[in-house]
Amino acid sequence: MKAYNEMNTQTRSLKETRALAGRFIAELAKRGKQKNAFVVGLSGNLGSGKTAFTKELAAVLGIKDTVQSPTFILERIYKIPPKSVLAKHWKHLVHIDAYRLEGVKELAHLGWEEIARDPKNLIFIEWPERVADALPKDMMKIRFTFINERTREIAWR
After folding, report:
1. Tag placement on the chain: N or C end, fewer CB within 10 Å?
2. Over the stretch 70-129, which tens digit does the pLDDT of each residue have?
3. How far are the Cα atoms of 120, 135, 137, 142 from residue 37, in angstroms, in the given order?
4. 11-156 in CATH: which number?
């Protein structure tokens, strides 16, 4: 399996976050076809930037829908526009918030197995540690740290 390029940086604006999201998605696109969905775990405290990063990544993918936190509905699925240069890699951005899930059984109720099998799905899951037993061991992990009101540290591996 190809190793990921590790990244550890700080962003001080949504513009910087969008640029970082663009670099991140370009890194994923280089990986080529996968057997299953590509899963990315987003970890960090409340307000550390997980949803903001996902919003900016959705914009990079060409998604025009308003990307909102799935905290209360648990899962949101966004169609990646066919004209997006990344549509050849993925058809859907699936954004899951596992914060309110009690475990793997509740993730299964969201249709996890079917979603995770589809290689055309790009899945971003916040609070992955809550459902770690259901997630692929080789998933990409991004760690978010709140530094101050304007600054977030974002690290992936």
Report:
1. N
2. 777 789 999 999 988 888 899 999 999 999 888 888 888 889 999 999 999 999 999 999
3. 6, 11, 13, 17
4. 3.40.50.300
CA distance 86 to 9: 24
Strand ranges across the sheet with 92-97 = 7-11, 152-156, 140-146, 38-43, 121-126, 92-97, 75-79
Residue (of 77, 96, 85, 79) closest to 135 by Cα position: 96
Domain boundaries, the chain: 11-156
pTM to 2 decimal places: 0.91
